[in-house]
Amino acid sequence: MDLPRNPTRAVKVGSVIIGDSNPIVVQSMCATRTQDIDATVKQSNDLHQAGAGIVRIAVDNRKDAKALEIIRDQTEANLSIDLQENYRMAALVAPMVQKIRYNPGHLYHHERKKPWQDKVRYLVDIADKNDCAIRVGVNAGSVDPEKKDMFPADDSISPMLVSAEEHCELLDKIGFTRYVVSLKDSDPDKVVEVNRRFAELRPDIPLHLGVTEAGLPPDGIIKTRIAFEQLISQGIGDTIRVSLTLPNARKAEEISAGNEILADIAAGRVRSVVAFDRSHLNIISCPSCSRVENEAFIDLAEDVKKMTEYAHDYPFTIAVMGCRVNGPGETDDADLGLWCGPRAVTLKKGPETLGRYSYDEILGRLKAELDRLIEHKLP
Ligand code: SF4
């Protein structure tokens, strides 16, 4: 595949090399519960067989780490672990994986008095001793709060850039260069802008591209394609993930979608792309992962899409998220947001919580709120 590439560093992750003009690595993440060992082994292997260069697995606690020991023995995939607040889990799992992903915005919640720099040093030490690469995963929905306060509320790009830059500076200062950076947002235009600006500042650092919470196919693929076409055709991006809301049995479609987008860009088949139309209803939903608390989430995301078809011509964003870990923060910027708990779904209007409803009630409540928004929008 002949694609232009920025002169980034080579970062080895198990059997693949990200950056330095190596083929763009297509990756994905398991959406099964990590402690459901059989399901996670099956999904890792499905993704690996579909061509995933790296498979990410969330590890939130010791039981997940214990499960990973067995999963590791039953898959050939290069594994990356996804850390949330408890960054110390890295010590337990690093010997079993090839990459550690941390989010700078999550390093504030645990051991609040400890400087984030010390936590990064801890992670680097673990990565170094265990032959692991690192991903600095900056996400618009969970950006470092201090960085947010430095800029006006309508500038979501600058806090992400500043956060990524300062982590890169620290990693370089420590002498650890085996890392990649991701800067993700659910808005493809923002993904393009933030990655373009970062690539200008640090053309040497490999970038992992993705539109987070892109949603259900085909819309989720279209949004992702829009961002990737603009970035990859300019040489930006060394590894990609197409984040789609899919049932577990179809998760490998993330890999085929990624490969198709890359092949089309390489062949110049980019003009047929449907523009991301901001004058229409935009449904975003997370790709789901092991943190999903009720499997009804996938059906709910599909039902929301069907139920809201009547509002297609209104420029609202509705976000549907699978868990209480990231759902509350990631729904703040949507006009209406739903995040799913084990038994109830929380409905939000912007950052304001409107209430918690059962899975049977939520669609009706969402429709009532959507109708209210439409009414206010009418001339
Ligand atoms: S919102 Fe929750 S369930 Fe969805 S991908 Fe993010 S962490 Fe996983």
Describe the protein.
- The mean pLDDT is 93.
- The chain is α/β, with parallel strands linked by helices and 379 residues long.
- 49% of the residues are buried.
- Helix 1 (37-50) crosses helix 2, helix 4 (116-129) packs across helix 6 (157-174) and helix 7 runs parallel beside helix 8 (219-232).
- It is 37% helix and 18% strand.
- It has two domains: 11-266, Dihydropteroate synthase-like (TIM Barrel); 282-377, 2-Layer Sandwich (Sulfite Reductase Hemoprotein, domain 1), CATH 3.30.413.
- It has helices at 37-50, 62-73, 89-93, 116-129, 145-149, 157-174, 188-201, 219-232, 253-266, 296-307, 327-330, 362-377; strands at 11-13, 16-18, 25-29, 54-58, 79-82, 99-102, 133-139, 179-184, 207-209, 239-241, 282-285, 317-321, 336-340, 344-349, 352-358.
- The radius of gyration is 20 Å and the shape is globular.
- It starts with 10 loop residues before the first strand and ends with a helix.
- Strand 8 (179-184), helix 7 (188-201) and strand 9 (207-209) form a beta-alpha-beta unit.
- The strands form three sheets. The chain has an eight-stranded parallel β-barrel, surrounded by five helices. The chain has a five-stranded mixed sheet with strand order 11-12-13-14-15. A two-stranded antiparallel sheet has the order 1-2.
- The protein binds iron/sulfur cluster.
